[in-house]
Amino acid sequence: MLPVLKAIGDGHEHSNREIADTIAQEHHLSEEDMQQMLPSGQATVLTNRLAWAKVYLKKAGLLESPSRGKHQITAQGKSILDRAPERITIRYLKQIPSFDDWRRSKKDGGISNEEIVDTVVETGRTPEELLESSYEPVLFTLPF
Fold first, then answer.
1. In terms of Cα–Cα distance, which of 113, 79, 25, 111 is closest to 17?
2. Of the CATH numbers 3.30.420, 3.30.70, 1.10.10, 1.10.357, which one belongs to the domain with range 2-96?
3. HSE value, Cβ hemisphere, 13 Å, CA-based, for 63
4. For residue 91, what is the DSSP state?
5. What residue segments make up the domains of the chain, in order of their start?
6. Stated pTM of the model
7. Rounded to the nearest 10 degrees, what angle do helices 113-123 and 127-134 cross at?
8. Of the candidates 2, 42, 43, 52, the residue with the CA atom closest to the CA atom of residue 22
9. Is 140 helix (H, G, I), strand (E, B) or coil?
10. 68-106, pLDDT tens digit by residue?
11. Ramachandran region, residue 61 (left: φ > 0; alpha: ψ -120 to 50; beta: rest)
12. How far apart are CA 73 and CA 11, in angstroms?
């Protein structure tokens, strides 16, 4: 999540593409790295990971989306970035009240964000990656 915060750290609005390009350049990602797809083939791993990082940073109040597809660092995000943390993890975000409140809230059906977030922490995978890895096609014969 720290690379996302750094990519928007100048205080200006940045598009999803600008954030991805900045991170790819700074971390020397190859074209192959950037094109690696999730097993579903619906999105790249990079796009998926960046999307979840933005969700978590937004829930923590560290970034905002002033318009669709645009992201900007908040004053709180800038304050954290100025402290130069080595990493921003979910464990780090749990210290921020707005993130912890969101994490503890319940989804429809009684599943809490806490359960989802804790599973992400344990596995190191995004919710989509967890779902895709648990899905196995069921083959059956129709009775007609």
1. 25
2. 1.10.10
3. 33
4. H
5. 2-96
6. 0.76
7. 80
8. 2
9. coil
10. 999 999 999 999 999 999 999 988 999 999 998 888 876
11. left
12. 6
